[in-house]
Structure formats: structure tokens, C-alpha cells
Write a structure and sequence with these properties.
The chain has 180 residues and is mainly α. It contains five helices and no strands.
């Protein structure tokens, strides 16, 4: 039987100006809806206005401490090289050893809690951890030089002076950071 042309068919009816279905009343559309839009209702706290970027002072302090430790250890190595070997500019092989030693020391300090703000406030614990990290880093450096058969290129007086200057510099830095 053919459909009756006089019955209302909502599928063929043109959309209303508000974009809502023809059988919906004009008050059914949510506020802010535009024709053809899909309005999702999400929790309001997710769409809070953006805040200005803030700088975390703790993060800046710990970054400066790490950079300072790296510069201090590299400077201690260069100073020890200049004093012991009478050469202000070390050869590239020595620069590689210095870079590896600084990287190992920074890694060990991080692994042993040397950059934890709570532990930085306790000086006695920090000095112990610093000495342990520096000793492990130097032991790893000597082991690395031994395993690559470059132990002869390391001067023992230079290594001892670097260890002493580096440890005293790290202790000074930790003492100052525990005060502030």
C-alpha cells in the first residue's frame, strides 16, 4: 500500500532554523549550540582558563647545582692536569677521560640521592653520599681505563689530585646548599 501523502513524515521534513529535529521544541537545544554542532558536556575543571607559566624554584636550584657540579669537577680535573703535568691544555685523550669522569660522577650523585632536596638539608648524610658517589665514579673510571687498556695514560698523581680537588669542591657546594 502506498504511503499516504497527508501523513506527516519527519524524515522528509526540512530542518528547523535551530538545527534541532522537527519534532523537538525550540527550548530543547542546549545553550551555546549552533546549527549542526555537537555539544559535549565535559567537567568544567578540565577547561579552566590557562594559567601563566610559573617557574619552580626547586627545579632551577637543582639544575644549577648539577651544572655547578659538572663545571666544578671539570675545572678540578683541568687544574690538577695543569699542576701535575705542567700542561694547561690536556690532549684529546685526557679530555675524553675528564668528560667520562664528570658524566660518571653526575650519574652517581643522582643515583645516590645527591640531588634530593630533603637530603640536601641534612649535611652529614649528604657528605657521606657525595664521597661515596665520587669514589664509585673514580673507581668506574679506572676500571673503564683498565678494561680498554688505557690505564697507562692515566697519571696517578693527576688522578689523586683530581679526586682531592673534586671532593673538596663537592663538599663546599653541599655545605653552601645546605645553608640556603
Amino acid at each position: 500500500m502506498p504511503p499516504d501523502d497527508t501523513s506527516p513524515n519527519t524524515h522528509d521534513a526540512p530542518p528547523t532554523p535551530s538545527g534541532s529535529p522537527p519534532d523537538a521544541t525550540p527550548g530543547d537545544s542546549p545553550p551555546g549550540a549552533t546549527p549542526g554542532s555537537i555539544l559535549l558536556e565535559l567537567p568544567q575543571e578540565r577547561f579552566a582558563p590557562p594559567r601563566r607559566a610559573t617557574v619552580d624554584a626547586r627545579l632551577v636550584f637543582l639544575t644549577l647545582l648539577r651544572v655547578g657540579d659538572g663545571i666544578l669537577l671539570g675545572g678540578a680535573a683541568l687544574t690538577a692536569h695543569a699542576v701535575v703535568l705542567d700542561d694547561p691544555t690536556p690532549p684529546p685523550a685526557s679530555m675524553l677521560v675528564i668528560a667520562a669522569g664528570v658524566a660518571l660522577a653526575l650519574h652517581q650523585l643522582n643515583a645516590r640521592g645527591g640531588y634530593d632536596l630533603v637530603r640536601l638539608r641534612r649535611l652529614s648524610s649528604q657528605l657521606y653520599r657525595t664521597a661515596l658517589a665520587w669514589a664509585v665514579a673514580l673507581a668506574l673510571l679506572v676500571g673503564l681505563a683498565y678494561s680498554t687498556r688505557n690505564l697507562a695514560s692515566l697519571s696517578r698523581p693527576w688522578l689523586v689530585l683530581w679526586a682531592a680537588l673534586g671532593l673538596s669542591g663537592l663538599y663546599t657546594g653541599r655545605t653552601i646548599s645546605s645553608i640556603s
